[in-house]
Amino acid sequence: MNYIVLDLEWNQCPSGKENSVDKLNFEIIEIGAYKLDSRLNVVDKFNELVKPQVYTEIHSIIGGIVKYTIDELNEKGDYFEFVIKRFLDWCGEDYIFCTWGCQDLTELQKNIRFYNLKYKFDYPLCYLDLQKLFSIKYEDGKLRRSLEFAVEYLKISKTIPFHQAIDDVYYTTEILRRMRLGELEKYYSIDLYRKPASKKEEIHIVYDTYYKYISRAFSSKEKAMLDREVKASRCYLCERENATKNMTKIANWFSDGSKTYYFLGECEKHGFIKGKIRMKKTDDDRVYAVKTLKATDMDGASQVLEKQLAIREKRRKKRLGIGE
Ligand SMILES: [Zn+2]
For the CA atoms of the chain, what is the radius of gyration? Predict the structure, then answer.
């Protein structure tokens, strides 16, 4: 299997988001990629500019990042329809995408949809988010650092500038090599451009240290929370051992009043398990749930209970009209 290290540059509406063309907030202007073999040797490179068809001026923020002018893009670039075809042909059959952050594959697919092109990616689309893997390996797993931060952290010499897709791909590849994937590859990500369309397509992944579930879409978060699978509290560690065991609920799913729900349970065998559901919006304004369950200790358990208390207290004060 090959690794395709991918980086995109995109432009956005020069006169602000409110004037954006529907369904294309970001127009891709460059695709850069390295193809690596299983030993992480570079076997080929891909770099093409895209002729802008939607936003024909560079947004000022983007202009401060990328170095292209519209004239250059028009002169050296080709239409997206042709560039994407060459790119996907170049990728071949057996590969996994590697990106810095979680945005590139989604934007790539949005651009493909915008032009009504029929390219099918695997479902679910698994990829390696090196920004996440960097955090898991060197930091707390939650922080998300810039590419330049990681380059400095790993003492990679900064011989070329940043923010040209192919140059960022060079740095991302250097980071990938220094991190040595191995165990880290188990922490692959799922691109959420295409959401589960049915119960059957819902996603369940048991990682070493946590479990992740992505639901189909519901008309509201309240509806989602009525769904058995969304609110299910089976111990994922028991499931990994092929046993089904419901946890004792210590704090059943409670809301922070916004988009997040929390849970605390206890498994006889595996101890405290904390849960979190984040409700996310689909393009057509429905919601789907992203649930994680994670084994925790006494400290972690108390934190969930403290959160519950704080939320209750806040509600009580609000009910009584006491300001904070
Ligand atoms: Zn268990």
Answer: 22
pLDDT digits (tens, 9 = 90+) for 270-307: 999 999 999 999 988 999 999 999 999 999 999 999 99
Helix (H) / strand (E) containing 27: strand 26-36
The span from the CA of 99 to the CA of 193, in Å, is: 15
Predicted structure pTM score: 0.85
Write out the residue limits of the CATH 3.30.420.10 domain(s) in the chain: 2-189
Q: What is the 306 CA–ligand 1 centroid distance (Å)?
A: 23
Cross-strand bridge partners of residue 273:
265, 295
The highest-level CATH class for domain 2-189 is alpha beta
Report helix, strand or coil for 9: strand
73 alpha carbon to ligand 1 midpoint, in Å?
56
**If 0-12 CB within 10 Å is exposed, 13-18 middle and 19+ buried, where does residue 266 land?**
middle
Q: Which two tokens stand for residue 151?
A: 């380059």
Ligand 1 centroid from CA 102, angstroms? 31
